[in-house]
Amino acid sequence: MNELTINLQTGSKIPLYEQIYNYVKENIQNGKLSSKEKLPSTRTLARHLEVSRSTIELAYEQLMSEGYIEAEPCRGYFVAQIEDLFAWEPERIREEEIPAREKEIFRYDFSPSGVDLKSFPYNAWRKLSKESLVADRAELFRLGNSQGEWGLRKAISSYLYQARGVSATPEQIIVGAGNDYLLMLLCMILGSDYKVAMENPTYKQSYRVFSNLSYQVCTVNMDENGMLVSELKKSEADIAFVMPSHHYPLGTVMPLKRRMELLKWAEEKPSRYIIEDDYDSEFRYKGKPIPALQGYDRKEKVIYMGTFSKSIAPAIRVSYMVLPYSLLEGYHKRAEFLSSTVSRVDQLILQNFIEQGYFERHLNKSRALYKGRHDALLAALKPLQDLCTISGEHAGVHLLLHFPELEEEELIRAAGKNGVKVYGLSEYYVEPPKKKEAVIMLGYANLSEEKIKEAVRLLEKAWRPLKGSRR
């Protein structure tokens, strides 16, 4: 063995030689250092641990005096044979894997968070991965820019301007592994003296992040146009977290007038901001896409967030945040010391994926694919028109079914008995809604058109008798 990596506590009351002695002794006792195994020389270990050679000699002398190691002339130090003298009983470590909680298996799963991975461009991604690593590029394996690589940020900046009307320079963009990380980073930048308002219902993961970071979090009710600005004003919140392009889970698309009202609210006080979560704006099936709220911001009030998890694949784990210039100084002061959580290799692959046109082609293919499934689902649901109404069908990859005469739990239970997994809207409410209504969410991204038709037939079989039982 050439090295022993020991975490020495220089500020500890325990002398350094004693820390080294304890480390070696414990590793011999628990079998991590076996008998006859060679230890590093005093000179080598002193250089590795950056301590004086006399410190190592003191530790080794103590170990030799207690019989843990032996010194052989011209050969060095070796672990002594002690297994036959004493049977050590190291602390038992549970090695068997803790079994995961069994999940109920369904024939069809209308998950609203699904993504079609069969359409993922594996060949293109494999090609770009090979090209990124074909040359000996040592710099790729060093720590890069904490905001993310310049090339990727430039590619994201160009894409956002063309596709979403977002005005952002590469300097304003921060790349991170998922929106949760970026929200935590944002909290470091802003500090904790803020009250956050979230729509009700909302994306619970973001609500948990803010709550666990000790923010004051409140909910604001919505109408068919999104967050009610009148209620937002009463909440005394400083930050509004909204999803204007496609609300999750309601599927609401916020009209321009409401967006302007939100911006006006933010401009009334210097400390107010809007966090715009634009998680799946790429998928819209009716009308012309409305540009991002950030594109209308002239007072640097909108913090824009986006992700490639929906448009490419969840495992890509690349999200991005566009900070107003006014918050960049706070980032450099309070959070720039944190390294980027996305590897430079993955960033280079994604950059080339965007710049070489693969991303645009993949998006066009995905839009056509999801549009076909969207239309197939709407057609299959027509026989259920006497039971429910549909909303949220103009964008995204899920829609909602409203049942005025039935209970949400009984709908979910009946569907499950017929092998179909569906999801209730109630689990997305932080505060219970004033009007109790049974609403079922159906996601269609990871089901083929044929499976959608068959699954809806099973849903009709499950739900039709429920209406009759209420008469």
What do you see in this structure?
- The chain is α/β, with parallel strands linked by helices.
- The protein folds into three domains: 1-99, Winged helix-like DNA-binding domain superfamily/Winged helix DNA-binding domain (Arc Repressor Mutant, subunit A); 108-115 and 367-469, Aspartate Aminotransferase, domain 1 (Alpha-Beta Complex); 136-356, Type I PLP-dependent aspartate aminotransferase-like (Major domain) (Aspartate Aminotransferase, domain 2, 3-Layer(aba) Sandwich).
- The protein is 38% helix and 14% strand.
- The protein has 14 helices and 16 strands.
- The strands form four sheets. Strands 4-11-10-9-8-5-6-7 form an eight-stranded mixed sheet.
- Helix 7 links the parallel strand 5 and strand 6.
- The radius of gyration is 29 Å and the shape is elongated.
Short structural summary:
InterPro entries: Aminotransferase_I/II_large (IPR004839), HTH_trans_reg/aminotransferase (IPR051446), PyrdxlP-dep_Trfase (IPR015424), PyrdxlP-dep_Trfase_major (IPR015421), Tscrpt_reg_HTH_GntR (IPR000524), WH-like_DNA-bd_sf (IPR036388), WH_DNA-bd_sf (IPR036390). By secondary structure, this protein is of the alpha/beta class.
